């Protein structure tokens, strides 16, 4: 059964909210996926995560970002195509572009050692924190929760690291950069979102309301409130990790 058949048979009846598009190389890949979903009726609103995994996706990143709803930076596979010393440059650049476009960015492969160990290495802990400070919205765990020995502990550990990083995230600077990038005049809803962030910063509420961003999705303007970093995990044991339907 190919991926299209899986989506028709299992995705459509369960009204999946997200579709991860592996090895996205061109913006046309996203457009074709969206056209396919639109023909399935209930999946016309399904968000598409474009997964950047190779040099082709990297070279066409701006065009892909414009078409996709969300971006996944598959650092493991990118590390194969790119020299190791170049991966961090792409991460910082891609996350900044996602932030300015108001589209969630997902970072993968952060605590691989926790697949078999209860604690991450110091380098991994620092990497998680830096991913938050770089502007990632989601930390996606893979093998650590799929087949790891400590799935719950992994999520808890990564969550604590993210929370500590969020405490020192420069919300004021991020807000100013975003407003400068968006420019003026703002729409009515954009001005409301901007005012909400400014008020949160003034009353030191940033650890609760970390940032608002706006993004145009189809014909509607969506004003979204998100933490600077969230955690997703998946497991074969549904009693250990909760998850949304996603293919």
TrEMBL record:
Its cofactor is K(+). Residues 10-155 form the Pyruvate kinase barrel domain. It catalyses: pyruvate + ATP = phosphoenolpyruvate + ADP + H(+). Its EC number is 2.7.1.40. It holds the Pfam family PK. Pathway: Carbohydrate degradation; glycolysis; pyruvate from D-glyceraldehyde 3-phosphate: step 5/5. It comes from the Eukaryota. GO terms for biological process: photosynthesis. Gene3D superfamilies: Phosphoenolpyruvate-binding domains, Pyruvate kinase, C-terminal domain. One of its GO terms (molecular function) is pyruvate kinase activity. Keywords: ATP-binding, Glycolysis, Kinase, Magnesium, Metal-binding, Nucleotide-binding, Photosynthesis, Pyruvate, Transferase. It is an enzyme of class 2 (transferase). InterPro entries: Pyr_Knase (IPR001697), Pyrv/PenolPyrv_kinase-like_dom (IPR015813), Pyrv_kinase-like_dom_sf (IPR040442), Pyrv_Knase_brl (IPR015793), Pyrv_Knase_C_sf (IPR036918). PANTHER family: PYRUVATE KINASE. Belongs to the pyruvate kinase family. This is Pyruvate kinase.
